[in-house]
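Hey, does this match?
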Amino acid sequence: MLHAVGQGAIGLEIREGDEWLEALLEGREREGKKGAVVKRVSWECQAERSLLRTLEGGCSVPVGVSCFWEDERQKEDTKSTGTEGGKDKTTTIEDTAGGVSIDPQMSPGTLHIRASVTSVDGTQCVAATYKQWVSNDQEADEAGWQVASVLEKRGAGRILEAITLNRGLVERGGGA
């Protein structure tokens, strides 16, 4: 199921000068461990907002989106170790650098974006899936733009134009 752009993203307010929490949230190394929050979620939100901005949509436009990550490193570092109870048993080899575990949540990877634009009455829908390697803010922004471009080519513009037209008619008619 696709959700609204930015759905599930949270903002945090922290005490000024709380270096430990700042390091955790910014993903900086602290006490030999990588921070467990931020970059990938930030890149997902950035890609989603770029999609909506490119489509010139807002909170009342029926645009759905869902993101997930494909870890290239996990695929390379996984080996089959036979079967157990009729199912394949796999072992992931831990990736380490200088004795410090690397948190896959903090690393670049392939971002998959599924998105759709649906008419208000639900009779028309265009959808697209796009994947792109993302390792920085600019690449996340581009991924959102790319999936929006695919949606446009498939007819999202006509659906969004009709929604905009209907919005004007409702406003001139005194509301719904």
Remarks:
- Strands lie at 63-70, 78-84, 87-92, 96-97, 100-101, 109-118, 125-134.
- Residues 137-153 form the longest helix (17 residues).
